[in-house]
């Protein structure tokens, strides 16, 4: 789902993914960061529907 202009304007904009991630960690709910194609900044969302779980990096998770 793409962010609509009205939603983008109401959300807080972060200049970097690192700043958005830091704010997400401080939140009381689970949030994720996404790059906004409209403002070219980063926003936070609690939406997870239709997202793929990230693959574990080498050396993480199950041995193999």
**What order do the strands of the largest sheet run in, or round the barrel if closed?**
1-2
β-strand amount: 5-15%
SS summary, helix count? 2
- Detail the poorly predicted runs: none
Class per helix and strand makeup: alpha+beta
Helical content band = 25-40%
The arrangement of helices and strands along the chain is HHEE
Q: Mean pLDDT, as a whole number? A: 82
Our Rg estimate from Cα atoms comes to: 14 Å
Beginning-to-end CA distance, first to last residue: 35 Å
The biggest sheet amounts to:
2 strands, antiparallel
Q: Please count the beta strands (DSSP E, at least 2 residues each).
A: 2
Shape: globular
Report on this structure:
This protein has 64 residues and is an alpha+beta fold. It has a domain at 5-45. It is built from 2 helices and 2 strands. The chain has helices at residues 5-10, 17-26; strands spanning 32-35, 42-45. A two-stranded antiparallel ribbon has the order 1-2. The radius of gyration is 14 Å and the shape is globular. The model has no long low-confidence stretch (mean pLDDT 82).
């Amino acid at each position: 789902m793409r962010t609509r202009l009205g939603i983008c304007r109401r959300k807080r904009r972060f200049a970097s993914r690192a700043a958005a991630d830091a704010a997400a960690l401080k939140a009381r709910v689970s949030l994720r960061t996404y790059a906004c194609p409209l403002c070219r900044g980063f926003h936070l969302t609690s939406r997870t529907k239709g997202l793929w779980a990230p693959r574990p990096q080498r050396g993480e998770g199950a041995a193999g």
